[in-house]
Every structure is written in C-alpha cells, then in structure tokens.
Amino acid sequence: MAMRLLHAASVQLDVPLRGVGSVPRDLLDLVSTATLTAWDRLIDAAVTHDVDALLLTSDTFDAEASSLAADVALRQGLEKLAEREIAVFVVPGPRDPLAAWQEIPFLPENVTIFDSPWDSPVDLSDRGQTKWTIFPASSSGAEAPSPEQDKLRALRKPGSNGPRPVTVGMLWEAEGAVADAGAITTPRAAALDVLLCSDRSGSSARPNGEVMIRRQAAPQGMTPAEIGARGATLIEADSNRKLSARLLSLAPIRRERLTARLEGVRHRDDLCDQMLARLEELPALPGEELRIVEWVFEGSSAAWKRLDLSEPALDEVAQQLTELTDQPGKLRSLHRAAPLWQESVDEQQINDLWKDYLSLYDQRPTLDAAELRKLAMELRPQQAVPDGVWERWLQHVSPQEVARRARGFGRRWFAGA
Amino acid sequence: MKISGFEIDRFGVWRNFAQKLRPNGLNVFYGPNEAGKTTLLRFIRGVLYGYHPDEGPTARRSSKSSPKSGLLNIVHRDLDYEIRRVSRGDDGGLLTVSGTASGDSSARLLSELVAGTDEKLFESVFAVGLPELQEFATLTDDEVARHLYGMTLGPQGQLLMDLPRRMESELDRAWPKDGHRGRLGELAEKHRDLTQQMQGLRPQRERYRTLVRQRRELEQRINSLRKKSADLQTQLRGHQFLEKVHAPWSRVRDQRRELAGIPDLRSFPTDGLTQIARWEADRDATLVTRDELLTEIKIIGKNLQANRPDDSIRRFAGSIRALQEQRAQWDDHQQRMTALEAQAAEYDRELTRQVTDIGKGWTAARLETVVDTPEAHGRFVSTARDYQAIRSKTKRRQRWYRKLSASCRDRELALRTELQHYGVEAPSLQQPLNLAKQRLVQLTELGQLQLQAAELRQRSLTIDDHMERLQDRMGLPDWVWLILAFFVLAGIGLFAAGLSAGISTGWLVGAIYVVLALTAGGTTWALKLEFEAEIQRQVAELREQRNSQDTRRHEIEQRIIELVQLHGLWDPDAERATPIDATDGKWVALSAERLAQLELAQREYQRILDTRQRLSHMRGRLQFQQRELGAARRQWCETLKSLGYDEMVDVNAAFEQWQKVTAARELRRRAQEARREVRGLREDWERFRTRVEDLGHRMRAESLDYTKPFLALDQWDEELRAWITSRQEYRRLLKDRKARRVEADEVQRRVDHLQQQIAGLLQQANATDRADLERKLQLHQRRQQIEMALQQAMRELEVITQSEPQLALVEDDLVRFRPSENTETIKRLTREAAEAEKQLQEQFEQLGTVKQEVKSLSADRQSSKVRFEQSQAHEQLLDAWTNWYATAASSESVDLVSAMFEQAHQPEMLAAAIPFVERLTCNKYHRLWTQLGRRQLFVDDDRGSPRPAEQLSGGTREQLFLAIRLAMVKAFSSHGIELPMVLDDVTVNFDVERSEAAVETLMEFAKDGQQVLVFTSHIHFAQMFQKRGIEPIWLPARDRNGQILEDRLAG
Predict the structure, then answer these.
(1) Out of A75, A106, A328, whose CB is closest to B213?
(2) How far is B222 from chain A, CA to nearest CA, in Å?
(3) Which terminus of chain A faces fewer neighbouring Cβ atoms within 10 Å, N or C?
C-alpha cells in the first residue's frame, strides 16, 4: 500500500516574479504565468504520483492581489484533484489568510483548510486503515486542549495497536504566528513524525530529534535569490512508516546567480568564454523553459580597470551572452549583470578617494525615513510638496536598501579615479 | 609684450594724444574724474583686441559711433612694434602691425604678441577697472576660472569637480528640478496606467466568484427542480395508476362479492371437460407460443452474439472526445503552420534570389559567416572611408602627376622645337649660351671699338677743322679785338681828357686820366699777347691730340681687325669679306636677342629639369602612396574577408553588397524566425500527434497512419459513433430478449398452470374420469365463470400493478377513488410537471450561460500579464526611487570627500595669491581657499575664521581680488605670457593704510620687470607713488564738454 504526500509551500499563484528585469515580448507570457505553470505541474505531479494528499503550507495565493487567474487556477487544480479523490490540506499564511480562503466560494469537498493552529487532526484512511494523520502545528505556546492530544500521544508510543499512521504537522504561518519550526514545543509537537513548513519559517533547530522538518521553498523562484531547482517535495512512507522525501522540479523558470571572476581575464571575449563555461557546468533541470541568470563579477580594481567594465559594458556582456545562449523554441536564456553597487568591495584594492568615501559614508548617521524625507525636501524644495507622489513612494523605499546602495555607489563614483 | 607708448589720433575724448611709457615697472597716471583714464584703458584693450562700437561717450550720445584710430608702441623680445588700429566707428577696426599688411598676418602677429590670450581673459585679469574688480563673476568665467581653480587638480580633482554635476545630472534626470516629468515621472505614469488597468481587471475575480456561486446555485436549483419534477411524475404516475387500476379492481371486488354469494363448488367443476379441453387447447397453443418465443430468443441470442459491441473503445471515449474537441484548435494550428511554412519558403525563395543577386559564391550559409555586429559595421565603414580617402588621394596625386608630366613634356617639346629653330640641342644649351654670350660680348666690343674708331676719326676731323680755323684766324677772337679796341679808344680818350683836364682843371686830374689811359693801353696789349700765346698753345695741343687720337684709332682699328679675324665677325650678307658693322646695334640686338632667347630657353630648360625632379619626387611619393593604397586595399579586402564579404576594391560595390547582405540576412532572420515558429508549432503539433498516436497505441490501433492524426481521430470518432449505435442496438436486443424470456417464462408458467389446472380440476373435481368431471364441473360452471372473470380481472390488475412496480395498491385510495377528481388531479399534475420541466430547461440555459462565461474568464490570462508588467513597473519605480535617494545620500559623502580633497589640493593660483593678500590687507588675512568645483572663495582671518569672499567688506574684497589678479599675472608671466597690467582706479575703496600697502605691493610687484599701468583719480594715491620716486603722468583736466582745459594740468 503506497503512502505518498506531496508538499508545496508558498505557491504564490499569479504573484509576479521579482527582479526579472526587462523581458522580451515573446517571453512575457511564459514569465507572467510562471507560478500558474508551476501550479499546473504540481497538480499533474499529484495525479501522476497518485498521492494521498497535497499539502499546501502558507501563501498559496496573494489575497491582496485579487487575481482572477489565481482563483481560476486554484479552483481548476483543486477540482481536478477532487475528481481523482486526492485530498488537499491547506494551512493559511500571511498572504493567504484564513479569511481569504473562506471567501472562496464552494471549494471542492476534498479541500480541508485548517482554521487555527489547534484545529483537529484529520485522518486519511484507505480500506479501513488510517495511513496519515494530518494537523496544523504552531510554535506558539498556546494550544487549545483537545481530546486528540491523547490520541496523538498514543500514536507516538511504539507498539500500539497495529501499524500506526504517520503524523504530519503543517506549521501555522499565518499572520501573527511565530513561524519558527524549531521552536515548536507544544504537546502536539510530540506526536509529529514530520513537520512541513515554508522555507522562511525560522531557525533550523529541530523541536526534537525524531521529527523530520521539511522546509519547502516556493515551486517557482520568485526573486533573484531563489535559485536552482524549485518545486514540491514528494514524501513517501514505506511499510515500516519510514519516511523519505525527494524534490520534484516544477519551476518553468530557473533562476541562477553565478559568479564570473575577472582575474586573469584579459579581454571581454575571454570573460564571455568564461561565463559560457560556467553555464556549461549547470546541470539541466526537468521542466525548465527559461533560465534567468544574474551574474556577479569579482575581481580587483586593476581587473575592473583593465577590462574597462562599467555598468553599460556589463550589460553588453550580458546581452552578448543572452544572444549566444538563448534558443528560441527550446531552452530560453536571459542574462543580467548584477548592479555594480551590489558587488563586494575589497578595501585593500581600491583607490584613496573610494576609501575616503567608504570611510566617510560609514561615519554618517544611519538613514531612516525621516532622513530620506529631509533629503528630498532639501534637494527638490519645489517638487517635494507634502502629500505628493514622492511621499507615497517614500513609504515603499527601504532606508536600509538606500543606505546599502549609497555605500555601493562608491564604485560608480570613484572606480575610474 | 610691453607698451612703450601710445598715440591716439581719435578715441573717445582723446584727440592727437601721445604718451611715452616705461616698458618696465610702474606707470602712474593721475587724472580727475572724466579726464579720460578709463577711455585710455579701453583704448589699450581696443587696440589689442578690437574696438567696440559702443565705446566712447560720443557713441553713447549718438546712434552712430565715431571713428577711432590710434596706435600702441610695443616692445616684445627686444623688438619694437607698432600696433595701429583704425575704425570707422562701427567695427572692430583695421589692424596693422609694424607695417605688415593688414589682415591675417597682422592678426597672427598680434596674437603672438598677446600670447594668444583672449579679450575676456585680458579684461578679467590684466586690464581691470573697479567694476571688474568688484565683480566676483569675472573670476568665475570659464576661461579665468580654469586658470584660477583648475590648474593643479589632476584627474582625481577633476573627477571630484565633475562628480557633483554628474550626480546632479543623474538626480535631475530622474526627478528634474524644473518640474518636468523625468524618469521617475515616466515610470510613475506607466505604473499608474498599469495600476488602472489592474483596477479594471480586479472586478473580474469577483465576477468569477459570483459566477461560481451562481453556477452552484443553479446546479442546486436544477437538482431541486429535478426532484420536484420527479415527485410530480411519481404523483402523476400514481394517479394514472389509480385510474388504470380502478376499473379491474372494481371488477375484482364485484366478482368477489358475487363469488362470495355462490357456494364453493371447486371440487365439482361443471365444465371440467370443456375446461380441460380448452386448457389443453390453450396449453398446446401456449406451448406453440412458448416454442416460438424460445426460437425468437435463440435468434435474438444469435443476433446478440453477432452484434456484441467492441467495448475496447469505450475507455478511450473520453480521450477521443477531448481530442476531437481540440480538433478545431489544432486545425487552426496546422493552418498556421502551413501558412508559416509557406511564408518561410517564400522567404527562402526570396533569400535565394537575393543571395544569387549578391554575387557568385554566395550561399545562405555564407550569410551566417558575415559579421553583422555594430562594431563590424563601424569597422567596415571606417575601413571603407580610409581606403576611399587613400584611393582618392592617390588618384588625385596620379592626376596631378600626369598633368604635370604632360605639361612638362609639352614644354620640353616646345623648348626643343624652339631650340631647333636656333640650331641648338637642349642638353648642349650651356655651350651655345656661352657662345652667344661671347658673341654678344664680341659684338659689343666690336661695336664699341668701331664706335670708338669712328669717334676718334670724327674727332680727328674736328681737330683738323679746329686747327684749320685756328690757323686761319691766328689771333684773338673778334670780341677780344672789340674789347681791345674799346680799351685803346678809351685810353686815347682818357689821355686826351687828361691832357685837357691837366690843362683846364689841374694836372692831377689830367694825370689820373693819363694813368687810366696808359692802363687801358697796357691791358689791351697784355691781352693781345696773352690771347695769341693761348691760340698757339691750343693749336699745339690740338695737334698733339690729333696725333694721339690717330694712334689710338689705329690701335682700335687693329683691334677691330683682330677681333673680326679671330671671331669671324664677318658680315654674312656681304658679297666679300667685310667685317660686321656693329655700330648700329643691329647685330648686337640680334645677338642679345639670341642670348635672351637662349637664356629663356635655359631657364625654361632648368624649370623643366626642376619639374622633372619634382616629378621624380612625386613618382617616389606616388609609389609610396601606391604602397599605402595597396596596404589600404589589402586592409580593405582583409576587412571585407574578415567580415565575410567578397573581396572587391570597389567600395560602392562593396557597400551595395553590404546592403544586399544585410537585407538578405534580415530576410534570413525572418525566415529563421518563421521556421522557429514553425518548429514550435510543429513541436506542439507533434505533441498533439504523439498524443493521438499514444492513444492509438493504447487503443492498439497500430495500422492507422498517425502522421495524419485527424484521419485517425475521424476514424475513432466514427468507431465511437458506431460503437454507441451498436451498443444501443445491443441493449435493445438484450431488452428484447429479456422481455421475450419473461414472456416465455410467463407462457411456460401458463402451460404449467394449465397443466396444474387440469390436474387440479380433476383433483378438485375429485373426478375419476372426464365424464365425471364433466358432470361435476357443470355444477360449478357458473362459479368457474365468475372465478375466471375474477382471475382475468386479477391478472389485468396484476399486469397493471407490475407495470408500476414502485407503486403500491392502497385499498383506501381505491375506495376513495373518484374518476373525475382523479382526472382533474392528473391534469393539474401534468401542468405542474410541464412547468417544472420548463423551469428546469431555463435553469439549464442559465447554467450554460454561466458556464460559458466562467470558461471565458478562466481562459483569460491577460490579467497575469498586466500584473507582471505592473509589478515590473513597480520594481523599476522603486529601484529608481531607491537610486535617487541613494545618489542623494551618497552626494553628501562625496561632498565630504571633496572637502577633504580640497583641503589637500588647493589651487596653486590661490596659494600664490596669499602673499599678496597678506600684504594688501596688512596681514589681516592669511589664507585663501576655495571649495572644490564651487568656484567660491574663502579667506581665513588672523583668528583662523573662514569667511566667504562675498561677505567681506567692499575694500577688503577688492584687495582680495586684486591679490588674485596679481598672482595670476605673475603665474602667466612665469608661463611666458607677459602682458602689461592696467589698473583703473582700483584702490578707491582702500583706506590710507591699505593704499600705502597697495603702493608698496605694486612697486614690489613691478620690480621684476612687470609693466603696470596705474590710473588713479586720487591725488593722494598719485602722490604716494611720487614720494617713492615714481613721477605720475598728469593727464589734463577737461571741462564738462570734454574739452581740455589748456591752462590746467591735472593735479
């Protein structure tokens, strides 16, 4: 009797990918529907692997976005699973709170949405035998007393009646919850065989040594930092209830962040060759249709100067690489140069003005929103009127990011000196 | 350059004014207000850089400018120059320098004299008045500021100077100060548009959810209506059932009632035999019927066996229907693919045509090898331009060479022709020339000798004539004789008079007359003697002269003969050997003409030789040029080759090929794009086809041609339809067989029943035989009839009951049954059922509409695209804002870096100005500095407090700016730019102490030889110089009309 679960987290249906940069028109459809494609593949995978249940932890969609496509895809996917009698368990997250799930009209019967961290466990049975016991788990100390507690504890006792079900906890990560998988100390945690959560949920500490914690990343890399193979985890239990897990690659768009070393490179063509060689080393992933590679360049000031690399020059190199590797009709590729201000600086190898700049910049007070407002009003006294557009956008601007970028601008201003 | 003096013909108030100046050191001019000091300053500037039409009070008063004219005496590198500029008044003036022609050469010389400085620099640094000194802006003009601020900054300083501008430019580009939109504005607008689009799409989700709710509600309503309809149908069936049942039930009830009234004569059947006979007949007939039914069942069984449908297609029905539903889409897909293929083929044909048109050896594959990057285009164009330039240059030189060569050849030919005319060969021109020269000399000498001889001969004749005349006369000239006669007569007269007077008057008077008479007589005698001796002497001299001339003439004639004989100077026209008569110049002229011609020819020959030499040089250069051309051609060809084009020297052809190749590449790209799309479509098609094929394999339909999936689909569709039809037929047959089996069983039961009835009747009748039976049965005939009727009614009732197995017979209902009421009820229920059906239909229609809209919304992914674009715009905008704030924040640190840098890298000029500042401000200020790139000056006072220059008092600021100018003049001087410094009343705001300091500073400044012209209207200031031994130049005072007050010099 096969026992399989499929776990996905942060599906973020129809949430746009971030940090993609400009996208050619012919790739726009692919990029804009990447999360939907990943979702379709997730549903297909659940059907193909004949899983007992699909477990969705947090941020399956973005409630604030009110996306039609997300609603449609979610419904179609869940209905398809309902046709195959595959159960679906959902733990809401910060972006898809419980209320948002409850607003969705007439979800199929196979969908179980846990409405609190101490919601009752649900058993999944087959031919009269309980295979899985699934329930939400929270790292918050408060846990409502429930009759299931004893049952769960009993399940953990070895040698209880017959083969016991595998207990699966889904970490409650909804807004207000402390999403730390390692901090679960509630009695319910004692019953856990495996704890499922998203990859942003806190430390890597384990609540106890026996619990397998599966931190699942989004099936589609949403930001430049979310690189490599992405998908969902297929959890299998053998006849002895021994668990194993493997990642099913689902993402249509693969994001990578690669480093090109400038030392020893004499010409931009050599640099291009080196970058191509780095690309060759990347193993192919099933299902990948587009690679978006962000390149980070490392090298001494001398190397930068020798190659005369400015931001436009790096963009040219990336463009050249895109032209070399993009295969319309097959695997598509887009290459981007990481902004220069992101590059790390070896202060031993930079010129005096740059050093002075970094030194003086580090001495300045920490930037905050008030400081940014002051800057705008000082530099643009005519335009920076109260309640202007600038002020609305100021709320979105992160002072820490501004500070980081301003420090990094040392390269822009002084690298050529 | 130094000014040693100036002369003003006319300039402003000055007329015919001249002044010498000390070229080295100080020149102090004193003049009261309106004495013309500033006019002098403008005059100097005007002569050096051109007059300005609006200069001069006259010009200001009248619309027409007055003429201006004057000169400066200049000493430059120990040479004297005179710079004169004359203007009609409305122009800069015509320049003349030291007699050179006006125009470029003078302008060049003047530019050299002023060391290339422009008027702005001169006006801002060297020749300043109080207004220029007071205005800081004069130090911030680009040229001056470049010298003042930018001389020693180096690349880092330059970078720091440029950075604020660059940062401001970046900030401004994103968020312009002037209220324009900028990048942030553009992005915000784009974001706003996309947000609006998103807002427009947002209701779609709610619509979708509403539709889902509606769908669910409709489905529920349909279920409810179905249930209601079913209930109504059930009721209707019940009432219809009652209607059907009531009649047989009534009969049964009546017959049972009747039967109850008849004694039970079962054991005594009255019509036993008849009944038996009938039963037997019935039985036999029933057996026949049964056999027929069994036969039919067998036939149906066979038919079923034969028509058993192949259910294998059943499990693929869903897949087939799904594929069939997609057929239209794939049909379009195929058509699109075909169209694209046709397009690609068309592109290929066009490409082939264009490739053929490009030239031989061109193939589509070769197009790929062509380098088509912007760099390659740039290299192509630049190489073509270079090659074209060298080619044009070479051709030009070749043309020039050919032209010169042809000209040289023509000239040489003409020369040779001319020389042939003179009987001279060109290469031996020197010898004939020498001969001609010698002949000319000989002829000249001959002519001179002949002339001399003739002259001598003439002279001899003249002397002869003279001697002849002297000898004829041998006495005094007539006039002498007349004089002598006069004297004789006078002596006689006087002697007579003396005698008379001696007698009459006195002896003394007579004696005087006698003496006078004797004197006249003596004089006469003496003269006679003297004249006669002279004539004789003359005759002797003439004779001697004649002799010497004869001798000389003889010598000359001998020389002539020698000359003639030696050089063959014979007259060619004479019949006999006669020497040439060279006295009339004809032969000399002829010879001179020949010599001149030969000399001209020689010069021409020399020029030809020079030309040949030039041609030789040109050939060398041409060869070099040819080599360069060859190299350029190779370079061009290599470039063409490296870029993948045909090697050709014709640039235009290459450009044409380049254009064709570019067009062909574009076409090829389009074709590739089309093919790529076709590939994509084909892959999609292939997936579809594979799906069909997979389905076929799963269906084990291996024989089908899956390259044409539509055919397979059609076939399967047909099979599916056939299967459905056969399945229906099969079911019908099954049903039929079942019905017949039921009927056969019924018939069998009936046979059995008849058999049992016969046996039962006999048993019932307890009859021993048939006769007994007949007898007994007759007794119960009536009862049997009733019972039969009852049974018939019961059967009828049973049949009716069996036809509605779900309905049960309720005795009370049948008892209460009223036909009319029941009919009404049936009508009502039928009506209600129809109404429910109609509603159901409407709900179905609504459900269809909702489903269609849901499907339409589900297929719409436009919102995802818009959302993504909006997210991108949001990211870009946030990034731009973050960049803006980061740039703004980093600009503060850049300013600090600049401040540190400016502390360590103050301009050299400001450092040089500090000693002057200290001296001019009597050590009040010690440090002069500027902010990097700001062009703003600061001074630190004796307490070290920095103060911006513009916040200083007027006098101190003027001292500061004077110090800077002194430093600049000194710096310029050290760089070889020596110009006189002219200061016009710049110390008017200085107090006495600082005026003294200024005098000392200027004297010290001029000590090294720098010429300084100081104009002042303050007598005390002039006297300060006077006290120190520098005598001011006192300018004349003027009245209100500008007229000089002759009786009064200034001061």
Answers:
(1) A106
(2) 17
(3) N
Beta-carbon separation of B868 and A28 below 8 A? yes
Residues of A in contact with B683 (CB under 8 A): 329
Cβ distance B167 to A19 less than 8 Å, yes or no, reads no
Q: Which long-range contacts (CB under 8 A, 24 or more apart) does B231-238 make?
A: B232/B829, B232/B832, B232/B833, B232/B836, B233/B833, B234/B806, B235/B829, B236/B826, B236/B829, B236/B830, B236/B833, B237/B804, B237/B806, B237/B807, B238/B807
Q: Which residues of B touch A389 (CB under 8 A)?
A: 188
Q: What mean pLDDT, rounded, does chain B reach?
A: 82
Q: What's the pTM?
A: 0.52
- Asked if A68 lies within 8 A of B860 by C-beta distance, the reply is yes
Residue A254 pLDDT grade (very low, low, confident, very high; cuts 50, 70, 90): very high
A176: left (phi over 0), alpha (psi -120 to 50) or beta: left
Tens-place pLDDT, residues B917-940 = 888 888 888 788 877 666 678 888
Of B204, B861, B889, the CB nearest to A402: B889
Whether B55 contacts B12, CB under 8 Å:
yes
Chain A partners within 8 Å of B167 (Cβ): 413
pLDDT (tens digit per residue) in B992-1016: 888 889 998 998 888 888 899 999 9
pLDDT tens digits, one per residue of B230-245: 888 888 888 888 888 8
B714: nearest Cα among B313, B336, B332, B323: B323
Interface with chain B: mutation pick from A68, A104, A294, highest number of B CBs within 10 Å: A68
For residue B1050, what pLDDT band results from cuts at 50, 70 and 90?
A: very low
Distance from CA of B858 to the nearest CA of A (A): 6
Is the pLDDT at B95 greater than 90? The verdict is no
Whether residue B56 has pLDDT greater than 50: no
Compare all CA atoms of chain A with the CA of B868 and give the residue at the minimum distance.
A16
What pLDDT digit, counting tens, does each position of A292-312 carry? 999 988 887 778 878 888 888
Please indicate whether, in this complex, the C-beta atoms of B894 and A389 are within 8 angstroms of each other: no
pLDDT in tens, A126-172: 887 888 888 888 766 555 455 556 666 666 555 555 567 888 888 88
Predicted pLDDT at B269: 58
Nearest to B857 among A68, A328, A372 (CB): A68
pLDDT value for A289:
93
CB-nearest partner of B864 from A18, A33, A364:
A33
A365 to chain B nearest CA, in Å? 11
Chain A nearest-CA distance from B11, in A, is: 52
Nearest CA in chain B to A320: B373
Cβ–Cβ below 8 Å for A379 and B201: no
Of B162-176, B443-457, B520-534, B695-709, which gets the smallest average pLDDT?
B520-534
